[in-house]
Write a structure and sequence with these properties.
Blueprint (H helix, E strand, L loop, with lengths): L2 E3 L2 H9 L7 E8 L7 H20 L6 E5 L7 E5 L9 E5 L5 H14 L9 E7 L6 E8 L5 H8 L4 H13 L20 H33 L18 E9 H11 L3 H19 L10 E7 L13 E7 L7 H18 L17 H18 L2 E5 L8 E2 L2 E9 L8 E8 L2 E9 L6 H19 L1
Parallel strand pairs: 5-6, 9-11, 11-14
Antiparallel strand pairs: 1-4, 2-7, 2-13, 3-4, 6-7, 8-15, 9-10, 12-13, 14-15
Keywords: Acyltransferase, Glycerol metabolism, Lipid biosynthesis, Lipid metabolism, Transferase
Pathway: Glycerolipid metabolism; triacylglycerol biosynthesis; Lipid metabolism
Pfam families: WS_DGAT_C, WS_DGAT_cat
């Protein structure tokens, strides 16, 4: 049976999860329906799409792995091939009521994102959302964060698309590999000690715990102090008590317009997008009658530590930047420059330094520390940042499923404990798609925040034209 130890950050995500804060990523992908609107053809199309999803998901080795505890290292866990794997436990079809399909899909996606994944099974789910004959359809994908970071999630999830699944299957046939085979087994002695090693390993583990906690406490304390979050004073709406409910709001920007602003202001397209989020937060807070916070809310901006062009590999490889979103600045152009300057400072320091690099601590902590320290780490998130703002890369080429073109795709990020909003962005087909995941009770008007992103982008365009 194939076995692979969870990487340190994967283990941290696995233990950070609670009933109100499931640690899974998601994406809601909308597809153009089949050409025919005939009722019989549409029904057959749904069945064919469901069968196609089942076959392609089954052929992705990582999706056949589940998490199991191990004796050694103490507190550790491993990915193990699920010998009883049944794709039907992970894949479901839901028919939505007649009406606004996009709105119904977003509502259902939010409700499904509330539910933690079953931990005894490979930690993922897919839902095929269908409407009436001739209507578009959508696919909701849920992957546990222990299974993948953003780039790895894309590499795994892309296996369902025609343009990627076909070449992969052909390559597997050429090399004589059986579809669905798990990754190569780790030789047992590469991580399982012999009896003569246990006593010495126990002494070493105690010393390692002491060193790791010392280094971790030092870096975490310095990070929190530099971030100025020891006295949390963020916007009340962004730090409300968790209700365990979720709402999903979506927004779409034109990528050419984003680059039009970028060419005048300098910086990157991501700087423009983060400035649009900052401006949208200000508009939203003002309209709902909230007092602007005394200090600008801090966003955690994840950064991949994977090498450009390198293999996706397994495990999470993340750090992050902390960015103060200039909500208290009234001028849109000044907000954009503040975001650009803040990101430039972060990049100059690098992803392994600065207050946002707390995720790097995971590599220095032994498994036992992750198992028992996760509740403390989870509660500390609200002191470090107010919301998550992440960009999830997608393939640049056009994608399709069963010959049906991918029309739009909305990424979804998990909510940290003590926080109410996570903003995820993906670029595809000349558009930037925003998925805003919010605590359903703390931010019942998150749809208004999504519209404010588009309004802020329009305001920036007016300044450059």
């Amino acid at each position: 049976m194939s076995t692979e130890l969870l990487a340190p950050l994967d283990l941290a995500f696995w233990h950070l999860e609670s009933a109100d804060h499931p640690m899974h990523l998601g994406a809601l992908a909308h597809f153009t329906p089949p050409a025919s609107g005939d009722a019989g053809t549409a029904a057959a199309g749904s069945e064919e799409i469901l069968a196609l999803l089942a076959a392609r998901a089954s052929a992705i080795p990582r999706l056949r792995m589940r998490v199991t505890d191990v004796l050694l290292p103490v507190g550790g866990a491993a990915w193990t091939a699920d010998k009883d794997f049944d794709v039907r436990r992970h894949l479901r079809q839901v028919r939505l009521p007649a009406g606004d399909f996009a709105a119904s899909a977003a509502t259902l996606a939010a409700e499904l994102m509330e539910r933690p994944l079953e931990r005894g099974l490979p930690p993922w789910e897919m839902y095929l959302l269908t409407g009436g004959p001739g209507d578009p359809f959508a696919v909701l994908v849920k992957l546990h964060h222990a299974l993948a970071d953003g780039m790895r999630a894309v590499a795994i999830g892309a296996g369902i698309f025609d343009e990627i699944a076909g070449p992969l299957a052909a390559r597997a046939r050429r090399h004589g590999r059986r579809s669905g085979r798990g990754p190569a087994a780790v030789p047992p002695r590469s991580w399982l000690p012999g009896p003569w090693q246990v006593a010495g390993m126990a002494r070493g583990r105690i010393e390692e715990l002491g060193r790791a906690f010392g280094v971790g406490a030092s870096l975490l304390g310095a990070s929190l102090a530099r971030a100025g979050r020891l006295d949390p004073r963020g916007a009340a709406a962004l730090s409300a008590s968790s209700s365990g409910t979720r709402r999903l709001a979506t927004s779409v920007l034109d990528l050419d317009e984003v680059h039009e602003v970028r060419r005048v202001a300098g910086g990157t397209a991501n700087d423009v997008l983060l400035a649009a989020v900052a401006g949208a937060l200000r508009r939203w807070m003002t309209e709902r009658g909230d007092a602007l916070p005394p200090t600008d809310p801090s966003a955690l901006v994840p950064v991949s530590r994977r090498r450009p062009g390198g293999p996706p590999g397994s495990g999470n490889k993340l750090s992050a930047y902390l960015l103060d979103l200039p909500v208290t600045e009234p001028d849109p152009w000044a907000r954009l420059y503040a975001v650009r300057d803040g990101m430039d400072r972060n990049k100059a320091a690098g992803p392994l330094r600065g207050a946002g690099a707390v995720a790097v601590l995971a590599d220095q902590l032994p498994p036992l520390a992750h198992r028992f320290g996760a509740p403390i780490a989870g509660n500390a998130a609200r002191m470090l940042f107010d919301l998550l703002a992440t960009s999830v890369p997608l393939p640049r080429s056009a994608l399709s499923l069963g010959g049906c073109p991918l029309r739009e795709i909305y990424p979804m990020a998990p909510l940290a404990r003590g926080q109410s909003l996570a903003v995820a962005m993906s670029t595809y087909g000349g558009r930037v798609y925003f998925g805003l995941v919010a605590d359903g009770k703390a931010l019942p008007d998150v749809d208004r925040l999504a519209r404010a992103i588009e309004e802020e982008m329009a305001a920036l365009l007016e300044l450059v034209r």
